[in-house]
Amino acid sequence: MPVKNDALEEIETFSRVFRLGLLFSTTLRPLLTLGFDGMKKMSAWMDFSISPAYGKKYPDVPFGLTLIADCEPLTDSAAFDQYKRKRLRTMRKRETLAQISRRIAVYDRFFRSFGFPCPLPEHLERTVHSGFPKYNLFVDAHFMAEMCAGILVAVTDYDRVEGMLILDVAQAGETALGMGGRLFTTKEGEIVLRDEKEIICVLCQGADEKTRVRDTTRNVLFYSYGVPGIDAVHLREGLTVAAETLTRFGQGTVRGSEVFVGGSV
């Protein structure tokens, strides 16, 4: 039997996971129903809405969600390390790296327009020179999704989300408690993700402490923010990396994967 080369294997894996995401996106979605506070529920497999304010201010800006359920701790560290090295080799190819760098520059400009530094340029430089960082399976998958696609991805413990998730635009002076007890104070027009109790992530400032992944996390939600100038296809690419990683090395199951643009899928 012929042996598959690395490129063919990656294409087939991407296609397999992406088709699974399309299955959830197209065959299981019912008619839109009214959700929390009169907003439209956008997904059949998750309580998620996009506020009218977001749709008005960022009509063409995508946002993606992927939920991986019943994940287990990493058991085969050697195979995972080999997998990461393979991903790294692909990412470091000249043309691929140039495209990733251009997308990260788009995020950097958006962050700076609100007066905040973007973490992605530093992450990219460190990854190119030293490889992907080593934390745990969930956080490592998050970094690979970001760096392989050149987008911004967050990872969270879905079981700690309280009620519906809402993609929204902040008013000036809202507050949120970030990781490590940092206090975030929003600026007018910042992109935020809320649950029914509070802000759980401010795009330009960071994610909250409440929903961070822990060793006991089993249901893992990845969400990817676009900004003006970033296409939906790149969010799908990054979320596919995250899904492949957790299904392969965490024995998780993809419960849903969708990318929304301007209040629609």
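the 2nd protein, sequnce then structure:
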Amino acid sequence: MKPRPVKKLDPSRSLGENAARIVKVRLDEMRAFAPKALDGKEKAQHDMRIAAKRLRYVLEVTGFCFGKPADRAQRRARDLQDILGEIHDCDVMLPRVRRHLEEIQKRDAESVRAKAKGSPDLDPRLASRAPHRTAYRGLDVLAVYLQARQRLLDDRFAAFWGRQEERRTWDRLERTVEGYLRRAREARRAEKAAAKARAEVEAAERAARRAEAQAEHARRDRERARRQAGNTPGAVSSSGPTPPRRADAWAEPSKHGGGWPLRWNG
């Protein structure tokens, strides 16, 4: 029986999350065979035994991620595997015993017929001296034993499965792994939200730094413009305009009277 594929396995994620996905698929796979297996279908019982073995193996390796429900389910999967294994042994042995009995009976029939030679009828005493006559009873008894044991094991299997359903062994394991997956999804969403928030904060900080740099650049441009304006001839100084001097503020000495004038033309 091919195992069901497990989807969404991701090596970048945790062991527990990947293990939870595997356990869930293996558990569902095993439980899907229960109706036909309980009805005595040989193939379903065989497939269920293989599925129980797969579930047991994955729980032996990763059960520590899921605590007591996984430990209990691992032990019960082993018990289930043992019961179905014994049923499978009976399924295999019973047809073999019957085939072997049929084969030696055929050989004995040919031997008895040969001993009759040319007789028109067969003497019953020849059959009582068949070469394998002592093996018949032992094989018949073995076939009866295997058939009876098979039915007893079927009853044991049904009782065992019923107890696990009552004790919710498989339901508890299923809830545990589903809870693990749910928490893992929530953690990823929270991590993505935190990463988005960090990105937004970083973007805001970069925008603030750009705005600050632009403001500093504008301030330097204004300072440079003021310095250039102060070095230009005829420019207005920052302390205010200088009043012009009148041309006759200081009159020259009179050509006729000599000396400086007595009034100030300021």
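The radius of gyration is 52 Å. The chain has seven helices and no strands.
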